[in-house]
């Protein structure tokens, strides 16, 4: 494949992703509010335009979740990071000339507000780093290199793909592992980089947050979880440690919100939570996912706002990982080499999650029961901007690992 053909294929892939974002924006008309301190000045985007672009990005994240589930993880445990994929795609767009000030402004907003590490003040530990590896024989556009380093804060490295492709692959894998606390290994599988590779765009994301109200370990008990085939497995469930939880019941499903401990983040207005979307029917997750992705503004309009008294309450502990070639999830991108891995663990203390993406080229209160003993969907979300860090589903919490390639 010559350089021009490769560039055209990468450009078409980026155009497809951007078109998906635009489509979701037309469907989603609900306004999202951002605090004045959050909005990053852009020479080409007003605050209103930036808010609109952010909303488009968040809606696209949910649509991408649906696409990846349908193509890669139907009726199986699954976790991925739409934010990590979006960051890699945005860098790729910049690299092939199809980027825009709008994409860069959205990325800057997310990077500045969402991904500033707040662990020193008691907030979740979070980091997102980018890397670009370019074939050393290619001419370097200094302005593009400056953009990678200044806008994306990416390390920019010229490497020898032609004669040392395997060494570069190992180097990128080491980079991803180091920036995900060792949780993501071998993001690039053997054969994914060769002498024809010209660029690799990488993103690594790490999150570790403690629950605002932690669960008592002594209340964790092994209970039954109902599978789609009618069978049951046994898994450890965290039981009710507090009489009230953030839960809202809707027609056909309930939503539970578990906020993370939040310290003082130097004036940054943000709040992280994990959301569980539990269908009433044990086999209702497919229909719930369809409703979530076909209803404009679903996430923002289905957030528990207040604590309610809970009756029977338990959610399973789980720990698993998932990997796939993300090009399968995008129409028209079957020629783009894109790899993604993610992992998540929740227990009584909180959540640890990581992901990496590489592109080559409330009288008497009514009690609500929330027993997540059948398949459900979950999100880890920053609530002010609406940024979805991780999304996934649980079909069998007794399964701990699933890497899938090819």
Automatic annotation (TrEMBL):
It comes from the Eukaryota. It holds the Pfam family Serpin. Residues 35-45 have a biased composition (Polar residues). Residues 62-397 form the Serpin domain. One of its GO terms (molecular function) is serine-type endopeptidase inhibitor activity. Coiled coil: none annotated. SMART domains: SERPIN. One of its GO terms (cellular component) is extracellular space. Residues 1-48 are annotated as: Disordered. Belongs to the serpin family. This is Serpin domain-containing protein. The lineage of its organism: Eukaryota, Viridiplantae, Streptophyta, Embryophyta, Tracheophyta.
């Amino acid at each position: 494949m010559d350089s021009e053909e490769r560039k055209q294929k990468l450009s078409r892939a980026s155009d497809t992703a951007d078109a998906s974002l635009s489509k979701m924006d037309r469907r989603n008309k609900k306004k999202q509010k951002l605090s004045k301190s959050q909005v990053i000045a852009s020479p080409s985007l007003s605050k209103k335009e930036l808010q609109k672009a952010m909303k488009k990005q968040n809606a696209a994240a949910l649509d991408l979740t649906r696409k990846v589930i349908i193509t890669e993880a139907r009726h199986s445990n699954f976790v991925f990071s739409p934010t990590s994929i979006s960051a890699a795609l945005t860098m790729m767009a910049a690299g092939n000339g199809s980027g825009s000030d709008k994409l860069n402004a959205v990325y800057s907003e997310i990077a500045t507000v969402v991904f500033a590490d707040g662990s020193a003040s008691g907030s979740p530990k979070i980091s997102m780093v980018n890397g670009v590896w370019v074939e050393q024989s290619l001419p370097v556009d200094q302005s593009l290199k400056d953009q990678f380093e200044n806008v994306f804060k990416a390390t920019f490295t010229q490497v020898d793909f032609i004669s040392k492709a395997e060494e570069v692959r190992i180097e990128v894998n080491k980079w991803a592992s180091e920036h995900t606390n060792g949780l993501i290994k071998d993001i690039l599988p053997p054969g994914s980089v060769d002498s024809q590779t010209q660029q690799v765009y990488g993103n690594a994301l790490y999150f570790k947050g403690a629950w605002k109200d932690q669960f008592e370990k002594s209340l964790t008990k092994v209970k039954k979880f109902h599978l789609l085939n009618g069978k049951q497995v046994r898994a450890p469930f965290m039981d009710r440690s507090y009489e009230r939880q953030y839960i809202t019941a809707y027609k056909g499903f309930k939503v539970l919100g578990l906020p993370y401990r939040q310290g003082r983040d130097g004036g940054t207005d943000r709040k992280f939570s994990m959301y569980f979307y539990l269908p009433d029917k044990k086999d209702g997750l497919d229909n719930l996912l369809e409703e979530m992705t076909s209803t404009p503004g679903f996430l923002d309009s289905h957030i528990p706002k207040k604590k309610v008294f809970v009756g029977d309450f338990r959610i399973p502990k789980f720990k698993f990982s998932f990997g796939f070639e993300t090009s399968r999830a995008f129409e028209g991108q079957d020629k783009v080499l894109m790899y993604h891995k993610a992992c998540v663990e929740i227990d009584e203390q909180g959540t640890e999650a990581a992901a990496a993406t590489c592109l080559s080229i409330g009288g008497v209160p009514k009690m609500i029961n929330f027993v997540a003993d059948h398949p459900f969907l979950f999100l880890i979300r920053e609530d002010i901007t609406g940024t979805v860090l991780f999304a996934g589903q649980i079909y069998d919490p007794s399964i701990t690992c699933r890497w899938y390639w090819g």
